[in-house]
Amino acid sequence: MCGTLVLKKRFLLCLLVLSQLALAGCGYRGALYLPEDATDNQPTQEAAPATTPGDRN
What we know:
- The structure is a single chain.
- The chain is mainly α.
- Helix content is 40%, strand content 0%.
- The longest helix has 23 residues.
- It starts with a helix and ends in a 33-residue tail after the last helix.
């Protein structure tokens, strides 16, 4: 009889913790939106050509 009471308390505690985590989400706030142009966020600097240690021109 006492064992079922402990299980019920554990279940309720787990349910409470999971519901709080679900409500908290990722922590981001504000409206979600898609950026108008994704290229604005890309760096404009081009990568240097790859060289190997043996290449000498």
